[in-house]
Sequence to fold (710 residues):
Amino acid sequence: MESPIFALDIGTRSVTGLLLEKQQDKFSVIDYCIKEHTERSMRDGQIHNVVAVADVIKEVKDTLEERSGTVLTKACVAAAGRALKTIEATASISLLQQPITNDEKIKHLELTAVQAAQMDLAGQEKDNDYTNYYCVGYSVLHYRLDKELIGSLIEQSGEEASVDIIATFLPKVVVESLLAALARADLEMEALTLEPIAAIHVLIPESMRRLNVALVDIGAGTSDIAITDRGTVVAYGMVPVAGDEITEAISDHYLLDFPQAEATKRRIVNEGQDKVADILGFESTIYYDALVADISVHVDRLAAAISDEILQLNAKSPRAIMLVGGGSLTPDLTSALANKLDLPANRVAVRGSDAIQSLVKNEHIPQGPDFVTPIGIAIAAKQNPVHYVSVRVNKKMIRLFEMKQLTIGDCLIQAGIELKKLYGKPGVASIINVNGTEITVPGSFGTAPTIYLNNKEASMDAPIKNRDDISVIAGSPGAAAEVTLEELIGEVPAMTIFYQGKAYQLQSSLYVNGQLRTKDYLIKDRDIIEWKKTQSIKDFLYSRSTENLNSTKPFICYVDNRKISIDKGETKVFLNGENVTVEQKMQHNDRLEVKSAGNPTVQDLLQQLDIEYIRTITVTFNDKRIVMKQILVSVLRGVEQLELESPVKFNDTLKVKEKSPEPFIFQDIFRFAEFDISMVNGNFKLYKNDQKTAFDAEIQTGDRLEIRWS
Fold:
């Protein structure tokens, strides 16, 4: 026959021991025993006097052993729900250097967040010691990509991936005090559960946990609260007000000592009345309705404390409230809670052991709501046991509570191994400058840490068992950045331009630190790379030596101390018909034309200055066409008189003297016509336009001049 399950509910006022046996898929109560503490060795559910509590546990154990004939060596116990600490935390990872490609990396990210929660919790302690708490589980709240919610992080593109988790921790002092008390009573801890989880386990099956229900375990010193919603237990809480507050109120009001007041409270609740004698010896009968009226203020205070905590945990009134524990029988408490939370009266109910569906009904079943938690501890410890596990991590022994299937990741967290530090660092990156923009060429990724479970390689989520040996070897660093120009820039297409009507194919040029390099050049840190995908006109003309590019500069001379640029002395560049500088960049299919510079003369200079050098008129003389000229300007280089055809030199310093034009007279014709003036003798006459005239007569273009002899 299978050994019975021995469960202990170590409460503030008493210790309840229970023996259960499993019958197929149900449980049957064999026996139970309740012993009250002889002193206040428990306060608010926490053991304050290990020796005194151990003595009571041993009494309960000895009684059940004697009655059942069974030697009890192991016990299932529960930790108070208020002892749980829940912490939300976030961890993030850059996707620029470490993309997530598998579930293993996501697991690493989640456990990094759990470690952050553990450190946050440790920061709330005076000694900042994370080992003061056991992590008993965590849940992922959200995955985020660049701070936006996302369903999965695998193969996502972005800058940063992060995870939000909620982790649950149990204080070490709670566990150690339970272990110590059990050890002094010659018992080992067989399994551990949590008090509110125990009650919920037997009263609210998983199929009902989608409902928003509050379960309140009202004991003597505390009221423990657990809330279900969305298929799970979403919150735990506690208020340090419970049944003892009501007992004290009865003691004060009726002048009874505390034990008598407790007994009176129970009899009135069960029988409707009780006859009592106060400390002065006066006897009286207290009826249920009178008791309700006399302690209504204190009941209202208890209801207010519980309802306030429920609203704090749930942010709203739940759909229903279940009350268990001896304090749940407090008169009129259900009505007070319904009023405080604005619920119908039938949505707040006291639940007893008869509501436990998995329990076989027999004469040994203790009745009432104060036995729900002890029975729940026994059943939960059997169906969902939390075992004590010892594991060696990198030669260090750690202990964990198996509230779920433990993994290597859980062990690393408890051992305080920082997962981020186990990854091999990325290889040294190269910082280079490409066309004025600084970019980073990363090295290769470091490798993930290697994990061994009992000398065999394993993953973070590999399950572990008691006495397993885990070792973690940090990953190797990545290699330094190594990339060629071709790998960096890729294939660059050629460009076609038309120069003086002829097509040319231009390849892009790659310069590193000012030197032309081939595409197989291996890039080094701090290289300055110029990738000339287009060429300037200057580069194109230089590469072909087709033009003297100095001639594209202005041809300068100085006239009367004025700086003058002579157009004819400057090479003109036209791109797609527009006059441009040689610095202009060319694009695909551009048309380039160059008009070369000439050797400027004085005439080119005067034309550009719009200075009239010669005044001319045209006349006929003795029926011959004659062009008469008058020089209006003299150009000097120092003392040298220059002619129109004289070349002007670069940076020449010249002086231009202009003369006022004088009228031409008849006599001037002899300087331009082929006529021997010595023949002008005898009788002759001068005619202008068939009219007699004189040598000093003014003439103009078109005049007909003649000399006639008689």
Notes: Residues 483-520+527-598 form a domain with the Ubiquitin-like (UB roll) fold (CATH 3.10.20.30). Residues 107 and 460 are 7 Å apart (CA to CA).
